[in-house]
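Same chain as my last thread, 177 residues:
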Amino acid sequence: RSTPLYSAATSDGYKGQISSLKKELGSMKAGRATPAMLDRIEVDYYGTMTPIKQLANISVPESRILMIQPWDKSSMKSIEKAILVSDLGLNPSNDGTAIRLIIPELTEETRKNLVKNVKKSGEDIKVALRAIRRDANDKIKILKKENSITEDEVKIAEDNVQKKTDSYVKEVDVIVD
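reply #2:
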């Protein structure tokens, strides 16, 4: 009855967490320049916090250089300031028309920190997946109390939720590896 609908709802939650993990990992500084590194940075643009990608063209002219070319040259100082206060730890270089970010080579220490951060992100997503499972099982129990589903349907639904959780946890492990 309402279990398949419920299953679809939890599936969306799981997929959202996986997509969030991929986006977060894509924005980590890993020795190569990618425009996704700047996705989390917002600039104070005339009193409104605006993502950099909405204010400028971001390109990768070389493997370790990001070039930001603002469409409005008056926003350059704001973009520089946003990059400096971000967690990227990069120093922008402004030549008047574009801002360049040079991504340093990874040292052994930064590699270890990167691995630690990737694993932490994976664990955070697993916690979120388990919270989705818990919420799903709570909703199943509510349906049981309301006599909307039978005891057999409860078992089937809980098994399905657990299988789905397990498969997404494995997917997180694969992504993190």
